[in-house]
Every structure is written in structure tokens, then in C-alpha cells.
Specification:
CATH architecture of the largest domain: 3-Layer(aba) Sandwich
Distance between the termini: 84 Å
Radius of gyration: 24 Å
Number of helices: 13
Low-confidence stretches: 1-12
Oligomer: single chain
CATH superfamily of the largest domain: Alpha/Beta hydrolase fold, catalytic domain
Shape: globular
Structural class: alpha/beta
Order of helices and strands: EEEEHEEEEHEHEHHHHHEEHHHEHEH
Number of strands: 14
Length: about 500
């Protein structure tokens, strides 16, 4: 009886290629016309295959959505390039792309003057393209990005996997386009700032040094703005935001916004942490004084503050501030309000600011990609990747808040030329400005590098560019920062 041995050929890997469409455009600006090229679609994210120290080639892992704008006839060695992404985690880069940085922008109106569907697109003569080439990245599972057959999306849905994959997309683009000698910057919003801070250290440790980081609505230490048992920090960090919101909604008549914010910041810096730390040791007189101060600054009743045990949680606050009018206040942008689903609800059922922002951006982007950039991809476009945020892994921070201040500090110490721009919205209830300021104040850098950080404030929310005066001001601020960070100004 003979023994039969079965053999089989290895299954070939699926063939995937870059899927990019190239188009030419002109943007009219105050300085004259800009002629530029757009390349939009998907690029293949590869992984090196190494066997016993010997390079065996590359393996395709995913197809990542990328839209790149490059100025025609510019010197690549002189022309800066900015890599931009949003946050979530699990969000496509549509917000920065069509809100403030790109050559086209959404026209949707603002509080009290919102336009009806299907909205509109307009040129953005203030685009950052005036001073830098732009590369917008949609991380895996967002936009049209997706894994290739045989790969697991979950491998990308986590702190380290995300940094490594976005970093590799940047490295591959720089190599393919011959841009190693170009000045380079990162622009991130929300969780995109968490990514950018860690990515700066990741890229520089691999030899790609950066000129600048643009941190828009920053969150660098989740411990300062997460309402969790045993952590009172967030209550103090949110109070100046509550005060600004209360001012916007008419709770501080006859006072200026900056005056109200300054008072709230002073109370949140000293008295409030002390009051919260005392617990049952707080005297009756101290508690009464605290209730009065917090209620007055936040614009809610003393009875509510007392029942909340001096601790105003943000989702409850948005529900409470204008409850008597049947309105809920926005989280991403507290200037917006919407009808409450229930007059007795403890927390908001939906964010009215997201309700008004999502439709215009999702609609305009999908039209723009197909009609103007000629990307005919029929697959669904995900502004937010399905289930991504729910399955996102922070295993690196088990039993601790997500924290990237150490990585940003290391990047700045490693490269003393690295400049940082931080943008804050007074009405941002997702990443409140006081919390972000607290984070930046705790960078482990020498005094000489403090001058590398600049801060800009806007009377708007998380996506401050929804507010037209803030958008125009922010465009100018970012362009000025890029010029100075790259030595072009």
C-alpha cells in the first residue's frame, strides 16, 4: 500500500493597483490664478515581506483613499506639502477637505441662516493650496478606503495600527512623488490631532522630519476631558466652555464673551478643583458659594447644580441649558440648537450641530468627487466607517487614559525646528479649549521650545470653519503658519 502525498500550489495574492484619476484645475485667488493638478482615488497600502532578514517583495494590505493637490510648475524641493486627516476615530477627511483647506468648499450657511438640501460648492480662494500642496487621507474603512481580500479591517482599527498605516501611506506617497526634499507638515482635527502628535514622533523616528503640525480642536490627553468615575478633571476643564456657551445663548446679558471666559477660567483653575477635591469635607458655606458660582457661569439653575453634586456632565448640560424652551444645545458646536426628543430626557438623544453639518458635507463631497475630480467609484462612501469607533482598540493604554503628550514632546525635542499650531473653538464641546490648553501646558519640552507653539482662538465650534468669519480668519492663520514653519514667509 503506497502513501499518497497531496501538494498544492500557493494561492496567488489578489492583484490590486492604484486607482487614481488625474485632472487639471485653476483656482482664482487674490494673488492671481493657481494652476494645479488633482489626483484622487485609492492607492495601495503595502507591507514589506521579509523572510529570515531577506526582503521578499511587497504585500498589498489595503486600498486607501487619497486626494492630492499639487501646484503645476512648482519646485518640489521648495514647495511644502501638507498631509491632512480628520479624526473620529473612523472619520474620513471630508471635513478639513471641503471645510477649510481644499480648493473647493461647502456652502451650507450657519446658525439662523442654514441652506436647504442639496447645498452647494464654491471655490475657496483662501485655500491652504496657496502656500502648500495638499494630500488628504481617508484611513482604512473611511471614505472609499478598504482592506484587500484576505486582510482584516480590525488590524487598522486601533491606536498603533492606525499610526503605522497612515504613516506608511505618507511614506509611499512621498517616495512615489519624489517629495523627500519638500518641507512637510501634518494637519489633523479632533482625534486627528491625537494621530498627528503620535505620527510626528513615528515618522521622525524613521527619518522623515517635519516642519510643522496643525492641531485643530486638539485632544492629546483623554484624561482631561473624559467624564469617568474618580476623575474630576473634566468638570473643571469644561466650565469655561459652558460659560462661553451660556454667553452665546443669552445667559450673561451685558457682559463681553472674553470677560465671561476669563472669569470661568480663573475659577476652573483654582477654586473649582479645590471644591471638587474636598468631597464630604466641604463646608456648607463653601458648597453654597460653589453652587452659586458654577450655576451663574454655566447659565443653569442653582438647584440643578446642587442636584448634580457640583458636577456638570456635558451631555446632560446640553440637554439642560435650554430645556424650558424644548431645545437641545449642540456638542460639536454649541451655537446650534435643535428640538429635544423629550422634555424630561436626562441626556440629548442626538447632536443638533452634527445633524446640520453631516448632510451638506456628505452630499457635496460625493458630488465633487464624481463630477469634478472624475472618480467614478460606485462603492458606498463612508463619512464615518461602520462600527469603527466602537471596535477601536486602545490596548496600548490599558487602565490609563489615551495620552500622546510624551510622543509630541519627544518629536519636538528630537527636532527643535518643529513648529506647532493649535486652533481652539470657544463653542467646541467635544474637545474644549481649556482642556487642550491644559494638555499643551504639560509638554515635556525645554523653555526654549515653548515659542514653537502658537495658539489661535475662534468664536465657533469643533469645526470652526462652519462659521464664515472664523473660516476666513483660520485660512489666513494657517497660511501664515505654513509660511513661517517652512521658512517661506
Amino acid at each position: 500500500m503506497s502513501e499518497k502525498t497531496e501538494t498544492s500550489e500557493p494561492t496567488p495574492e489578489p492583484s490590486v493597483e492604484d486607482e487614481l484619476v488625474t485632472t487639471s484645475h485653476t483656482l482664482t485667488t487674490s494673488a492671481g490664478p493657481l494652476h494645479y493638478t488633482a489626483k484622487a482615488g485609492r492607492v495601495v497600502l503595502y507591507e514589506d515581506k521579509v523572510d529570515d532578514g531577506v526582503w521578499q517583495g511587497r504585500k498589498a494590505r489595503a486600498q486607501v483613499g487619497v486626494t492630492a493637490y499639487t501646484l503645476d510648475d512648482a519646485d518640489p524641493a521648495e514647495r511644502p506639502v501638507t498631509f491632512a486627516f480628520n479624526g473620529g476615530p473612523g472619520s474620513a477627511s471630508v471635513w478639513l477637505h471641503l471645510g477649510v483647506l481644499g480648493p473647493r468648499r461647502v456652502v451650507m450657511g450657519d446658525v439662523g441662516d442654514l441652506l436647504p438640501p442639496p447645498y452647494a460648492l464654491a471655490d475657496n480662494p483662501e485655500s491652504l493650496l496657496t502656500v502648500s500642496d495638499l494630500v488628504f487621507i481617508d484611513p482604512v474603512s473611511t471614505g472609499h478606503s478598504r482592506v484587500v481580500e484576505g486582510q482584516k479591517a480590525a488590524d487598522f482599527h486601533g491606536f498603533t495600527g492606525d499610526i503605522e498605516s497612515v504613516g506608511e501611506v505618507i511614506r509611499q506617497w512621498v517616495t512615489a512623488e519624489g517629495r523627500w526634499m519638500s518641507p512637510k507638515l501634518l494637519a489633523g482635527e479632533s482625534y486627528g490631532t491625537t494621530r498627528a502628535a503620535a505620527l510626528a514622533q513615528h515618522l521622525q523616528s524613521s527619518g522623515m522630519y517635519l516642519n510643522g503640525l496643525m492641531l485643530i480642536s486638539a485632544v492629546l490627553n483623554f484624561g482631561t476631558n473624559r467624564f469617568q468615575p474618580g476623575n474630576d478633571d473634566a468638570y473643571a476643564m469644561f466650565l469655561p466652555f459652558y460659560a462661553a456657551t451660556a454667553h452665546y445663548h443669552g445667559k450673561h446679558p451685558g457682559r463681553e464673551l472674553d470677560e465671561v471666559i476669563a472669569e470661568a477660567e480663573a475659577y476652573a483653575a483654582r477654586d473649582y478643583p479645590y471644591v471638587l477635591s474636598r468631597g464630604s469635607r466641604l463646608t456648607a458655606a463653601e458648597r453654597t458659594a460653589a453652587v452659586t458660582s458654577i450655576a451663574r457661569l454655566a447659565g443653569v439653575s442653582e438647584e440643578y447644580v446642587d442636584r448634580a453634586n457640583l458636577r456638570l456632565e456635558h451631555l446632560r448640560y446640553f440637554t439642560e441649558l435650554r430645556r424650558d424652551e424644548g431645545l437641545t444645545v449642540g456638542r460639536l458646536d454649541s451655537r446650534f440648537t435643535g428640538p429635544a426628543a423629550s422634555g424630561i430626557a436626562e441626556r440629548m438623544d442626538a447632536d443638533p450641530s452634527m445633524d446640520v453639518i453631516l448632510g451638506p458635507y456628505a452630499t457635496a463631497y460625493q458630488h465633487y468627487m464624481r463630477a469634478e475630480l472624475e472618480v467614478k467609484d460606485p462603492s458606498p462612501f463612508h463619512v464615518f466607517g461602520p462600527n469603527v469607533i466602537g471596535e477601536w482598540s486602545y490596548k496600548e493604554f490599558e487602565n490609563a487614559p489615551v495620552y500622546v503628550l510624551d510622543r509630541l514632546s519627544r518629536a519636538m525635542r528630537q527636532n527643535p525646528h518643529l513648529q506647532v499650531h493649535a486652533a481652539f473653538g470657544y463653542f467646541d464641546g467635544a474637545t474644549p479649549f481649556t482642556s487642550a490648553e491644559e494638555d499643551l501646558a504639560h509638554l515635556d519640552i525645554p523653555e526654549s521650545l515653548q515659542a514653537n507653539i502658537e495658539r489661535k482662538y475662534y468664536e465657533a465650534g469643533h469645526m470652526m470653519y462652519v462659521h464664515e468669519p472664523s473660516r476666513v480668519a483660520q485660512c489666513a492663520d494657517l497660511a501664515d503658519f505654513v509660511r513661517r514653519a517652512t521658512g517661506r514667509g
